[in-house]
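Example 148.
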Amino acid sequence: MIKCPYCREDFNDVKNSRSTYNGSQVWRRRLCRKCGKTFTTYEKVRPDFLFVIKKSGRKERYSRENIYSGIYRAALDWKDKEKIVNKIVDIVESKILDLGEKEVKTSEISDIVLKVLKHSNIKTFVRFLTYNKQPQGEEEFTKLFRKY
Ligand SMILES: [Zn+2]
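Predicted structure in complex with zinc ion:
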């Protein structure tokens, strides 16, 4: 329930809405039923409807926590770790939504995570790459490094 920021009333009517950021956010103009003031909300669309296909072929419901903990584990030396990891997961989620699919492979998700990490923290990127892709030797590592 979205409360009016002026009078805390629960009931309001949506006057106008549109998607932003490739559909990962919805902007809504609302009119309070009690005080008649208008206010704007931005609602994040969560990919909760998604299914993730694991390497084994098993299907699982999408879990933000899985992505979060994977990045968290690789982000050893960050300050304000929870906040930054959450922000990165937000970016990853909006990119997953941009795929426009109902099912995504875990490898697709880790590819997205790697692309985002490479642009934000190179050490964390390297650790995440090592955990997830387990490159055998320097050559394979270099190939993977260049891929993202
Ligand atoms: Zn109000």
